[in-house]
Write a structure and sequence with these properties.
mainly beta; 2 domains; eight-stranded antiparallel β-barrel; two-stranded antiparallel ribbon; 2 helices; elongated
């Protein structure tokens, strides 16, 4: 339900702020009501995690974190299903991930296999500087590799050494 311009004019004529007609505050109506009073402009503490690795997947991918804190180390993907640990210099962070599974895409001409999955995460525990860290967020996992071709068919379980690439980007609020 909106207020017409005619209604605003009538309201401006009927109500005045000491010495100032309400009509002179017309620019205020463009902002959400009580925006500057209800919520002060405080930054939300966001942390961003980035991991990138190449070669054969051994389970450990170099990573860094930036935002509320800055640290670097690696994330171990050889975890317990959906629980992974980030081993950083100032402590460890364990996360639980969830997300829909997706199917790899195969380029039949080049046998390039790629996989992308969106996920959510929750920080479940931490050690060292991160022992009281809590947070959650969203991320994206991208994996690609080239596989050998046998009898004209790309063999998904036979990757060419050195072609594996993994990229993980995630971010969310922490406290």
């Amino acid at each position: 339900m909106g207020i017409s311009g005619r209604a605003w004019r009538r309201l401006a004529m009927a109500v005045t702020v000491p010495g100032i007609a309400l009509g002179t505050l017309a620019g205020f109506t463009a902002a959400p009501a009580m925006a500057s009073v209800a919520q002060p402009n405080t930054p939300v503490p966001i942390e961003t995690f980035h991991a990138y690795g190449t070669g054969l997947p051994n389970g450990d991918v170099p990573m860094y974190a930036r935002g509320v804190f800055s640290d670097y180390g690696y994330i171990s993907l050889a975890g317990l299903g959906s629980h992974y640990t980030m081993y950083l210099h100032q402590g460890d962070i364990t996360v639980h991930t969830a997300g829909p599974s997706s199917t790899p895409t195969v380029a039949p001409q080049s046998c390039n296999v790629s996989y992308t999955q969106n996920f959510t995460y929750d920080i479940t525990s931490g050690t060292g500087s991160y022992s009281s860290l809590h947070g959650f967020g969203h991320g994206r996992l991208r994996v690609s590799e080239v596989v050998y071709r046998h009898n004209g068919t790309c063999q998904l379980n036979d990757p060419i050494p050195g072609t594996f690439r993994i990229l993980i980007d995630a971010s969310g609020p922490v406290s």
